[in-house]
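During the first year of the project, the team set up a workflow for recording each protein of interest as an amino acid sequence followed immediately by a discrete structure-token representation. This format lets reviewers and collaborators read both layers of information side by side without switching files. As required by the reporting guidelines, we include two representative entries from the current panel. The first entry is reproduced here exactly as it appears in our internal archive.
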Amino acid sequence: MLKNLSIKNYALIDELEIQFGTGLNIITGETGAGKSIIIDALSLILGERATTDEVRSGAQKAVVEGIFTISGNRKVKRLLDAADIENGDEIIVRREVSQKGQSRAFVNDTPIPIAQLKELGDHLVDLHGQHEHQSLLRPETHIDLLDDFGGLDILIRNFKTAYHDLNTELTELKDLISKRDALKEKRELYAFQIKEIDEVNPQTGEVDKLESELKILENSEKLYEVATKLYEILYDSDSSIHDQLVVVRNQLEDLSGIDKAFDPLKLESESAKAIVDEITRFVQSYSSKIDFNPERLEEIRDRLGVLSMFRKKYGGSLEAAIEYREKIGKEFELAENFDEAIHKLALNVDSVRAKLSEIGERLSSKRREVAERVTRSIAGILAEIGIENAKFDIDIRNKVYEGDAAELKSLVKLGKDFYETSDKGFDFVEFFISTNVGEEPRPLAKVASGGEISRIMLAMKTILAKSDRLPLLVFDEIDTGISGRIGAKVGRSLKNLSGFHQIIAITHLPQIAGMADTHFRVEKEVKGKRAVTRVAHLSEDERILEVARLLSGDDVTQSSISGAKELIGLK
């Protein structure tokens, strides 16, 4: 519901504020006074295109602001939550258009892209008349309106779930087929690489071990020479360290017999001799094991050369090569079993598609039943509001898929044929209408007359009122080309519809104006040598005079006042 609309520096409007009520809000006024300008300003905060021509001459920018109540409007709340905009029961939507052509939009003072504003507006207001913001003229909305009228929510949810499941299975199947095809091209390469890696048979840490062994073999002569020399120094010479330590130990034993202060030193000398003996044994053992093996030396050098090239080819290290071998080994093994895996997954796809097709067929059948009821009802209402020869059809088509590889698409299958499908089903719904005898129905979007469009919309909204969740409907010039008698019927239809929606309607007919719950008069006056638009919220007496003026013109008579009271429902 739109509670308040504030407009500043927009076209003929310098500044005005309108507080709308629930039910039926009627706007009247002389031609050219600016009634449609108010609707144009409203369309700005619904995301419609803005131009610099809309900025009042001499002003820096035009500002339009609307306060909407959104309690119960789950779609709007979801959009606001997704945009991270705080919201409660009300939101403030503001649009600013500068003289330089810059346009900005805000919701609760949070900047919002115009595309998002338009999406938000689509769930706040349905505007009918000489404007683009007409949901019923967009064929893609027809299927939703039909489903809402038929109360097909459960079937739709079930279909969407199955449709999502089919997409998931198809994605997995297509990925597996793609991987199989890619692996088929690589199988020969993988087979060669597996054979090459297995023949080399790299081991973790092998390079470090070989390089350590190589270093020893390359220095075996030096190792033997130094080890032998050490053995002589330590043990196998006339003045060896071992013999000298024996002499030291014996002398310290003699001294210790005289002075116990030498006891610790005697023990230290024994420890030193034990260490020298241990080193001697190790050196002697080591030198005896030194291997002068040129064949092994050459073998290690060759192996390291192979591993060096191998590392460069397979990731820079033996560990990387080993990991790569494990990876391609698994993929190669998978390639051997692809056909079985694909067959199993294809069976899953068939099963999910069968479920989707069964739900889709039931959904399509229900839609056709609902379409028959809606068609009969709307034709009757159109006759009541002055389009007596109208023929209204709801076209439900199913499109056979003509492309390749249908089994890999998100399609419904009935019999041998696949059908193009969305998450709403495999039906394509569009409203058709003919308003003249002898004419075949044409797509609703191609109906040219603005007055007829508004009345068609009114008829459809009357039928769909309980199911359509848009809180505000705006009808601009709904009475174009209709008589007072038909106007009375249109007024009653608007009044009935206002029990389900807030309605704002511009009219010149007293029969419609008399139905108002809230009545506004738009006037144009000269202020400071400039024309400005003013809006007045009429009291009961003012309403009577305004409806009387619509009945008799500027010369209001007692008879027209009586007629106005009768139209308003006053005694």
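The second entry, processed by the same pipeline in the following quarter, appears below.
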Amino acid sequence: MIYPVKLQKASVLVLVVVSLVILTAIGLGLLTVSYGVRHRAIAVKSESIAMLAAEAGYEEAIFRMSQQPDMLGALNSPAFDSTGNLTFADSYCDYTISFYNFVASKPVYRVLSEGYCGNFNRVVEVYVVQAVSGWDMGMCRVPSSSTETDPVYYANGEIIDILIHINKLNDNPDEKDIYISGAPQFLDAVEMGESRYTDGDSDKYSSVMGLFDNGIYFDQPDSRITDEDSVAQKVVRFKDSTLESLKLKPQITAPLSNPQKAVQLEFFVEGGAGKVRITEDCTVRGFRQSQDSSTWDYIIKPGSGGNQYERYDIYGYHVMPQDAEATGKRRTIKVEDTYVSQSFGGVQSEPGGQIFVDGNVIIGGDSSLHSGDQLLKGKMTVVATGNIWIADSIKMDGERDGDGMPNRNNPNVLGLVSQKVIRVVDPGMSECDDFSEDKPVEPSGYKYVPIGIADSGEPLDSYERRLPSTTVIEGALTVGGGGFGAENVRRGYYGDRKEAGFSAQDNLLLRGTLSEALRGVVGLIGKDGYLKHYYMDKRLLEGILPSDFWLKGKYIPAPAGWHDYRI
């Protein structure tokens, strides 16, 4: 059948119209999809920019936190603005820094940063804590005169099983800030404040990179251990929170040469309870080293910014008033009776013991209650504005791992903080071989107090004393006015400092952490003093230590502490 021409034309027109409708629909669909994809691309781009802006605000907040001498103090000061903002070409952010809570005794801070781009915004909410190192030092050098320092080397055969951080030295010409002789073993990571490269892009570390099996990290924020103000602010807050009866201010009362005021502390366990015996108003016979250029007994000169040094009078022996017990100047209390909580923003930390001494502290004695060692059961922090003299081994009660380290569930811990130095005494100074005295002086009304262990064959109260051949110190040590080490170590000498055995090399075993404004000399290998064996007590990462005395300038997210989301 043949259709009329008009009908054929009509059919073609219908087909054309239908095709146009279909093509128009397809076109509109494609335009819609294209618009949606473009719109989604713009949204994704804007969200990404908002997220980057929020992260930039977080980084700015963390940087500002790292610049504060004391973060809790800053948040409590009207001079510190806890908010901030950043503006970029196509975005901006607002951020807030606040205190959140305590984890045990460690402060946790909240950084909330909101980034904006157009109609889009993203939020970064992070809970951060102050990082903890094993061994922080202002510099890997030791004072050798009032204005000069000498490098201290990690030597062949040494095993360093502790996380190390060394501040940037700013030396000229620019050399490595860590000094290495031979091939010591670094079993943990090493952090450096300085860059790996000089300003001329020369690699300072290429010859030693193979030693750092667990990594070496450069351009890390400096520890604030060298900042006198940082240490002082924390000391003031510690003092303010300590029980009034344990804010001790000893007086010099005995007529000794170079007298220095001190409090003696002895830790022991009796009847299952941790106890501390406190003797106030002790007078230390200090031996002046100002004319002796052969020793390393220096502290940082206060107010010098850490660039000038001076000798100090080392510990010789000490006496106490004979009526100390009758007058209450010698008393024994339970460690738990020293407990207080840090409080901030209505939130309290876990309780721990605190003793504050405006003066020097001697830790040690010769009591049989602790079998020749100081034994601490409980949590305790001792802060001194002067020196802390260690005159015995100091150990924690409780369970231990196979390597001798306190078990992770062991609740006993000690913190020692000195605004001057923490030093292991030379017990031989009480024999006064090089001085006009031939034994300790006991002025009328005063009693000589022996420390350490009597020499073999000597009576228990003999003034001829020694320390254990392996002297053990378990705790977190913070040294604001110099370095941790041993007193009366002599340069190039053999055996001038009295050791437990005159022929054997003694060891100093530290289980804990150490922050020191500069290095202190522990000994000279094969000659005088100790060999060091330092091990990190990782319980200290978890906030177990009473009070807030960490000084690292680095803040890191707490476990599961990072959250980012859109609004």
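For the second entry, the following points were noted during internal review. The longest helix spans residues 5-66. The chain has a mean pLDDT of 88. Both points are flagged for discussion at the upcoming steering committee meeting.
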